[in-house]
Amino acid sequence: FNIVEIFEISTYFVVNFFSDPITGKSAGSGFVTFSDSDAGKTALKELDRFDLGGKRIRVSGTAPPLIDNKS
Fold first, then answer.
1. How much is the pLDDT for 40?
2. If DSSP states are collapsed to H, E and C, what string results for 2-56?
3. N or C: which end of the chain has fewer CB within 10 A?
4. Contacts with 43 (C-beta within 8 Å, 6 or more apart), sequence order
């Protein structure tokens, strides 16, 4: 599996992964922004602790970003 393939269970907008600035290798974390809350809930339920090539991944939720409408 690759990480993008496993998130294809849901529709997502953006996938961002972090890399080490010195080595360029994966830092082992990132963010996936889903198209709607149901897609995010599905990923949480089905992919938390998923075995990805012998390593268990963690999937956890965050609150949606606050939108500043002052402008």
1. 80
2. CHHHHHHHCCEEEEEEEECCCCCCEEEEEEEEECCHHHHHHHHHHHCCCEECCEE
3. C
4. 7, 9, 10, 32, 34, 59
- Quote the distance between the C-alpha of residue 27 and its chain's center: 14
pLDDT of residue 8: 67
pLDDT of residue 22: 93
From the CB of residue 33, how many other CB atoms can be counted at a distance below 10 Å?
14
Q: Is 8 left (phi over 0), alpha (psi -120 to 50) or beta?
A: alpha
Q: What's the token pair of residue 21?
A: 């600035």
- pLDDT, mean over the chain: 77
